Amino acid sequence: MIDRGPSLTDQVKAHLKERIVGGEFDGGRIPPETELAAELGVSRTTVRDALGRLEHEGAIIRRQGSGTYVNPPGLQIKSRLEEIWSYEQVLQDHGYTPSVEVLSADRRPAGDADAEALEVAPGTPLLVMEKLFREDDVPVVLTRNQISAAMIDEPVTAVEARAPIFDFLETHAGRSLAYYVSEIVPTVLDKHHAELLGAAAGVPAIRFDEVGYDSEGGPLVRAVSHFRDDLVRFRLIRRRA
Amino acid sequence: MIDRGPSLTDQVKAHLKERIVGGEFDGGRIPPETELAAELGVSRTTVRDALGRLEHEGAIIRRQGSGTYVNPPGLQIKSRLEEIWSYEQVLQDHGYTPSVEVLSADRRPAGDADAEALEVAPGTPLLVMEKLFREDDVPVVLTRNQISAAMIDEPVTAVEARAPIFDFLETHAGRSLAYYVSEIVPTVLDKHHAELLGAAAGVPAIRFDEVGYDSEGGPLVRAVSHFRDDLVRFRLIRRRA
DNA sequence: CAGTGGTCTAGACCACTTT
DNA sequence: AAGTGGTCTAGACCACTGA
User: Fold this and answer.
1) Touching check for B238 and chain A: CB below 8 Å?
2) How far apart are CA B78 and CA A237, in angstroms?
3) Spatial separation of the C-alpha atoms in residues B186 and A232, rounded to whole Å
4) Sign of the C-alpha dihedral, residues A95, A101, A105, A109?
5) Are strands B125-135 and A138-148 parallel, antiparallel or unpaired?
6) Which residue, A21, A114, A178, B93, has fewest beta-carbon neighbours within 10 Å?
7) Whole-model pTM?
8) Among residues 179-198 of chain A, which lie with CB inside 8 Å of chain B?
9) Could you say which of A73, A204, A240 has the minimum Cβ distance to residue B188?
10) How many CB atoms sit inside 10 A of residue A235's CB?
11) pLDDT in tens, A85-129
């Protein structure tokens, strides 16, 4: 049941998650760590690592001296803000069939803010790609990704631009997107964005202003995304620091 | 240098954080884990736990086979969304002197949404407290906390309502707030909120709709908060799930 | 008091990067 | 080949809960 490939911890975590969402632990109580360790044939440390991650996700609650319990309110969260990766995935989590349309893929010179975020000189040519994501043909997310053109080897076709931005960077720049630093900005949709998103101008919406970095902390991409708030809601768990 | 009280891991983490923000690791490179362990007189596991948390906060980056490095972009984040606890603290992080004004502290019956979130019957009396937070006399955050009145033993004075909500719950309900499940909602300020926040009506703003739970997963408080977006911006680090 | 999760240790071995 | 972080083990002891 437990083989090599994904780490043992990952396997144990996935295994427990399955049993939890499957409702196996009716009273809400999860077996003691020592018991799980024996049952799965791994060390208690490995079990603890897995449980720690599930706790962090909000799926379970651990109480010293008492036990480990299922946490229904935490289980309800679908799109965890700090984990979101591709918008296709977000839309799927909301139960829809996503589609992507590439609106544009041009070169434009970097403005001052672009230049600072991407650590290039102002005026440096950028590849700018705008994409619209729909769920069941209803537009939901509009994104603009900006990448230093020097990173990309060849001209980009609309088909290639359809790929999720991290796949795109992997393929065309040989760089791996490790994390985003994201700022959450409230806006109202202007005429242009409202039209594309199929909403009324002046409707409140969330905008993400983000910079994506590689595993070495170097900036790769600047992204701005607009969401149809009536269709996508973000939730997260906040804890004491 | 290392004594009992806070856990060893916490001490090591705080110690390293200090050296990092102090700029001690100029080349950006942090010593190997074995070296840190020997230097601090703790096990490598303890050092790794501390480094793991710093990595999660975005303060450092670890690269297998290579080393551990300071991560300047992550260090710049002040208010980490998933860690925020009291608004006083948030405002201090932004470099201001916070103050609190209690606008009201009444009893009102629970509406349907309140009742569902707090797991009480509709119409159950709730204690509703509205507070306005200012930084240097400029209003920034407006919050409304709703608590089942049955949890509170005595009538509440405005002075008592000044306390941060988790202190208040500790003192007056004997319950400990463990975490929030928060929903981020874009809005425009209506006349009432705009007036209180000293902004123009119709300005975009972020609203948090949250439910606070105790360590056993029971709902304690329903909170709604409005922010002056031009004064408080929320940032977070997003990683691959 | 027994049982639980929380902390910490010492050490082994692996995967990966760098020289 | 040497050095680094990544994974995992086995076991000790502590802090806390609950019967």
Assistant:
1) yes
2) 18
3) 11
4) negative
5) unpaired
6) A21
7) 0.87
8) 179-188
9) A204
10) 17
11) 788 877 777 777 889 999 999 999 999 999 999 999 999 999 999
